[in-house]
Amino acid sequence: xxxxxxxxxxxxxxxDAYKNxxxxxxxxxxxxxxVMFPLFIARYLFPITISQNQPLSLGLITFLLITLAFILLLxxxxxxxxxxxxxxxxxITPIELGKIFQKTFLYTxxxxxxxxxxxxxxxxxxxxxLSIIGSVAGESAASGVIISTIISxxxxxxxxxxxxxxxxxxxSIAVNDPLLPMxxxxxxxxxxxxxLLSIGFLAYIPLLLISMGVMMLVDNTTIADSNIHIALxxxxxxxxxxxxALQTSAGIGIYKYLVPGSxxxxxxxxxxTV
Length: 274
Known about the structure:
The chain is an all-alpha fold. It has twelve helices and no strands.
């Protein structure tokens, strides 16, 4: 492991992330539609209803797991797209893809468990502190909104930080490099918390606002036919996936800059060097 703490350049990572996304926008659109098509077909053939008495039904849980599988598959191909380029994107055998997907799925479950445990500890502490502050300051509608906003912002920042600090692990799996455990990913991203938070907020928020605006337009359409709503949602699906796509693009930049040896195998253009 490298003993030198490398500092990320927020502007450079963001610039490269946006540039990488825009230069591969066509294959991104193709991947998005290929991945989302089975999900929308399943949504059309097997509609899911959520009731207040039973919010988590077996059908909903099954659909969420299937959605997770397709999102992970999309992340694998996006990492490979941004690292190798579209020429090397599908140069992988089904057996290799299965192994990559298995590792990605298991590490995702491990990451979810870490996030849940962290939320249980940090979240409860935050709630305790804010409830004390609220009781001292007095209860009011404005104070309730302020407290909920603070909690939501802290949770969002905490989630972004964990995701970006573990990105090198998922990149190493997707591009078939030697596996980088999460402990090592945390080591290589040390002393970059504020830089990673800045990258995360500047990468997520602009595209997230665009995505939310498009979703609101689709949801507020006056068309009564639910099938047309499903079709419209499918058409705008790549826009809703843009924040996720930019996250993976930034993850490639973080991996290349902070992990020693990552650029020895892959050059700047994304092609494999000999």
